[in-house]
Write a structure and sequence with these properties.
Number of domains: 1
Largest sheet: 2 strands, antiparallel
Strand order of the largest sheet: 1-2
Mean pLDDT: 92
Distance between the termini: 18 Å
């Protein structure tokens, strides 16, 4: 199961100036967002879920 850390989604949205969307994601989503279950969310937000999942995996490996 591929997941994305919520912090990466928030960072990507804020970098694009989408603070209101980032605030919503922060309130509504868990710390680890399932890519498959939330594919439409990533599409709506204009985010590359696969790229974020790969970045999330690298971040998790570095922390371990």
């Amino acid at each position: 199961m591929a997941t994305v850390q919520k912090s990466l989604v928030l960072e990507a949205l804020r970098r694009r100036g989408l603070d209101a969307r980032a605030d919503w994601v922060d309130r509504a989503m868990p710390d680890e967002i399932d890519v498959q279950l939330n594919a439409s969310l990533f599409d709506t937000l204009g985010l590359d879920a696969q790229a974020l999942a790969e970045e999330s995996a690298k971040t998790s490996e570095a922390a371990a």
